Amino acid sequence: MRDSVHEQIIVDTNMATQPPNKPKRRTYSGEFKALLVKEATDSGRSISSIARE
User: Fold this and answer.
1) Is residue 34 part of a domain?
2) Residue 4: what pLDDT?
3) What is the pTM for the complete model shown?
């Protein structure tokens, strides 16, 4: 498209045409979460220190 002064370019910026690069989030069962909480409360350690194992 062109008028007397400016040239205009029309661009489609729809992101739905591009595949997502974001990895899916991990999901953990309630049983696994309960096990982590029990281990943390019994040992006195933090959840993050247990997760690093």
Assistant:
1) yes
2) 65
3) 0.49
